[in-house]
Structures are given as C-alpha cells and as structure tokens.
Amino acid sequence: MDTGKIVIQIILIIGLAVPAIILLLPTRGARGLALRRLTMLAALIVGIIAVIFPSLANAVANAVGVGRGADLLLYGLIIVFIGYGLSTSAHLRKVDRQISELTRELAIAEAKPPAPSSTAAEEH
Amino acid sequence: MTAAGTSESAPVATPEIARGTWLVVPLYNEAPVIREVVEHTRRTFPNVVCVDDGSSDGSAEEARAGGAHVVQHAVNLGQGAALQTGIRYALQDPGARWIVTFDADGQHRTEDALRMVERLQAEPLDIVIGSRFLDGRTKPGLLKRLVLRAAVIFQRVTSGVRLTDAHNGLRAMTREAAGRIRITQNRMAHASEIVDQLGELELRYAEEPVHVIYTDYSRSKGQSLWNSVNILSELIFK
Fold first, then answer.
1. Is B69 in CB contact (< 8 Å) with chain A?
2. Is A88 an interface residue toward B (CB < 8 Å)?
3. Do the beta carbons of residue B187 and residue B238 sit within 8 Å?
4. Which residue has the higher pLDDT, B185 or B57?
5. Cβ distance of B43 and A120 shorter than 8 Å
6. For chain B, which domains are there?
7. By CB distance 3.0 to 4.6 Å, which of B43, B50, B52, B137 could disulfide with B10?
8. In 10 A of CB B34, how many CB atoms?
9. Phi/psi at B112 (nearest 5 deg)?
C-alpha cells in the first residue's frame, strides 16, 4: 500500500511540475501549440475510454495506489485545472503586452508630432 | 495659481535647458488640477507632453488648454505604459536632450526638476532620481514610511541599486538613457522596473533631494498602501 501511495504522489508531482516547466520555458509558437493540441487530444481519448470501460478508472486507481476511480479523476481534474489557469494567465499577459504596444503606436500616430513649443511667456 | 504645490513663482531655466528638456506627464483623471500644473511647469519647461491614459473626465482637453502636447491612449493601460508612450513621443523631437518624468497631480516641484536637469548637464550622469528622504522636508505617515523603507531594501537585494527612495515619480534622464530604458510593467511596478534596468544597463545614476507636496488632493489620489501588495505581485509574476 505504501509503495502504491508513492506512485500516485510521483504522478501528481510530475503532473504539476511539467506545466510549471512548460510555463517557465519560453515556448516558440509551433511546439507550444502542438503540445497543447496533443494534450487535449489525449484527454479526450482517455475520456472516451473511461466512458466505454467504467471499471477501468477503478482498476487504474488501484494500480497507482488511489482508493477509488473517482478520486483519481478528481486528482486529474485538479492538475488540468491548475495547468489551464497557468497557461491562460501567461497567455493573457502576452495579450496585455500586445494591447499596450498597439495602443501606444496608435496614440503616437494620432498625436501631432512633437514640435518644440515656444515658451509659455511668449504665447500670452 | 492656487493648485497643489504650484503657488511659488516659476524658476527660470537657461534657454538650452528650456529647449532641450521634455516633461513627460502620465495623466489619468486629473482634470481639476492638470491645467494649472501644466501652465505652471511650462513657465520653466515649455515642452510638456501629457499622456492621457484613457481618462473619462476631460483631462486631455484641460492639458491641451494649459499648452501641453497630448497623446491619448485609447484604453487605460496604467502609469508605466503612459510613461513609456510619453518617452517615445518626446524622443521623436531630435532636439530633446533630457527627459523628465513628472506627476500630474502637482505634488512635484519644477525647481526640483530643474536642479536635476542641471546636474545631468554638468555631471557625467545618465539619470537623476528624486528622493524624499535625503532631507527632512517631506513628512509621510509612519506606515507609509515603513512600507517605503521595506521597498528600498527589497530593491537593493533584487537589483543591487542603492537608492533611498524606491518609488519617486520625479526622474530626469538623458536622451540616451531614455532611449535604452524599456518600461514593460504597465501598472505601478514600473518604478521598480526602471531601477532594475539602471542596474542591468549600468547607467550612471544619482539621487537628488526633492520635496513632495502631500496636499489633500494628491493624498486623495495618491497610491494607497494596498498598492504595495499589487506592486510586489506584479514584480514576481512577470
């Protein structure tokens, strides 16, 4: 039983650490996108299999040292949720930076170019 | 001239400084005071650019009426973004030799800004940063003092730059320094970001004692201490 617990702990730690590492490394467009799509695909396939063979979740849970299949699903959900939150916030930060750049370019393009002003005293 | 901190007579800059200096003023909902602040500072520094950061109260018109150049963000981005926009704008003028960042609410004094530009002109420095704590004139509350003190220590540890005042909005820099500094922190953490870059770019910096006028107006608008939490989290979760 104790060795079983270690298995699920290792799986969960890897599940949490991998998205963290992916988040920290600057992923270039193609690879990041491909990874996201593959993960999504894998999750869907696992979901379909779990629907077809309901008892499989329990069997897998027992194999890795978790009591019930429902618990295993919950753990999986937590990992997916955290990964989703992290990747979404990273994406939002990127979009924020892009909006800043856009707004700045627009603001400068619309403003009159800076000609040095005469002194205020001369104007009045 | 009765607006916050603008009651004294205007100090006189040499023609070289008056022509070569651009004041960059981030502007967000400061319509009640911005016109007087601009009019007053323009007696010393004719070139003022106000970056209206999506104000909803007619700040841009007031700034224009005061004689400032106005650049308008279509949406509110934050003070750091406004500063970066203003610097970019001012650097389009090939005659711009010095850039001064200046607050819109009238808590900074033009004589302090002028002294800082004069130092840039006379000494081999890239940037001069205002400090409230080099002399005893400015009197913030105890809690604010403690938080600012903690910010200074945090800054020394993370950037290696030794300053006495971590978040002073009054800075004067040369054209070259302004062109190299990149402010990407849109909101309040830009002050720390600028200091970090001082260290990274190995800019020659100095501090100049300045007096910040805490009026009821600036206090009501000023940074709440809650912001220190926001600044810290913005710095950590870049």
1. yes
2. no
3. no
4. B57
5. yes
6. 15-236 (3.90.550.10)
7. B43
8. 30
9. -65, -45
